[in-house]
Design goal:
Structural class: alpha/beta
CATH superfamily: Ribonuclease Z/Hydroxyacylglutathione hydrolase-like
Strand order of the largest sheet: 8-7-6-3-2-1-20
Largest sheet: 7 strands, mixed
Number of domains: 1
Radius of gyration: 17 Å
Distance between the termini: 20 Å
Helix content: 10-25%
CATH class: Alpha Beta
Number of helices: 5
CATH architecture: 4-Layer Sandwich
Strand content: 25-35%
Number of strands: 20
């Protein structure tokens, strides 16, 4: 059974049966980029406890909102970590020993039954493309796709269908710079491509307040209601779950034929 707990921002706890994965965790202290709190700072309204019995830390990017240094310092350094090459540099500098770096197309298997496939994700600057991930339970065939900035590789269609997608549904942009998080348009494209049973939005904040100069000029576009109408327009039966931070969701899925990808 697949169970998901939203921990705010891009942070998730994913339970595939008995295996627990902590994804892009920010759980303690503030979220600041490059010590520039005057530019951008995220603060929690409600403290989040660190989940127990974590089998794996999974990191999509090396930026602070995905590989949050203060949180990683609090976590047990004996927990194995899988991440993009950029993210694994962060945890190696924090003395984690069991670290696996995944390039696009590479795979890792957790506890003999959860397969993790790295796929192209978000571009960071002109030369770096971070990771998205497909997770699949080999025992049940249940599959999940995660990409936190709405950049979806055309290669994903080869892995369709995917049962659950976690990705932004609302677009966030900056004047002159354009989109920093792609939502509505790319989300409907990936839904049409992967035919998910369930979609959950990420990067929407949760129980978080944002401060700083940057927040004054951020612009958002779209809503869950608009996205639901797009799903109906394209005759997609995908269910949207708007997750409440801290609540654990048993994801209702119809069985599909097990595919080895």
């Amino acid at each position: 059974m697949l169970q998901l707990t939203y921990l705010d921002n891009n942070s998730w706890c994913i339970d595939f049966g008995e295996s627990r994965i902590l994804l892009d965790p920010w759980l303690v202290d503030d979220l600041v980029f490059g010590n520039l709190a005057w530019l951008f700072k995220g603060t929690r309204r409600v403290p989040k406890s660190i989940p127990d019995k974590v089998d794996l830390i999974l990191l999509s990017q090396g930026l602070e909102d995905h590989a949050h240094p203060q949180t990683l310092k609090k976590l047990d350094r004996n927990i194995p970590v899988v991440g993009s090459p950029n993210a694994t540099k962060v945890v190696q500098n924090l003395s984690y020993d069991r670290v696996t770096s995944l390039k696009h197309g590479e795979r890792f298997t957790l506890n003999h039954h959860v397969e993790i496939i790295a796929v192209p994700g978000s571009p960071i600057g002109p030369f770096l493309v971070e990771n998205g991930y497909i997770l699949r339970d080999k025992n049940t065939g249940t599959s999940l796709y995660y990409e936190p900035h709405g950049y979806h590789s055309p290669q994903l269609k080869e892995l369709s269908p995917i049962d659950v997608i976690i990705t932004p549904i609302i677009t966030i942009s900056l004047p002159l710079l354009g989109c920093i998080i792609q939502g509505r348009e790319t989300a409907i494209e990936v839904a049409r491509s992967l035919q998910p049973q369930v979609m959950l939005p990420t990067a929407a904040g949760g129980d978080v307040d944002f401060h700083g100069l940057l927040t004054a000029i951020l612009r958002s576009r779209g809503s869950l209601e608009e996205f639901q109408k797009l799903l109906e327009k394209y005759n997609l039966e995908t269910r949207i779950i708007d997750p409440k931070p801290g609540e654990r969701y048993k994801i209702p899925l119809q069985p599909r034929t097990i595919d080895t990808f």
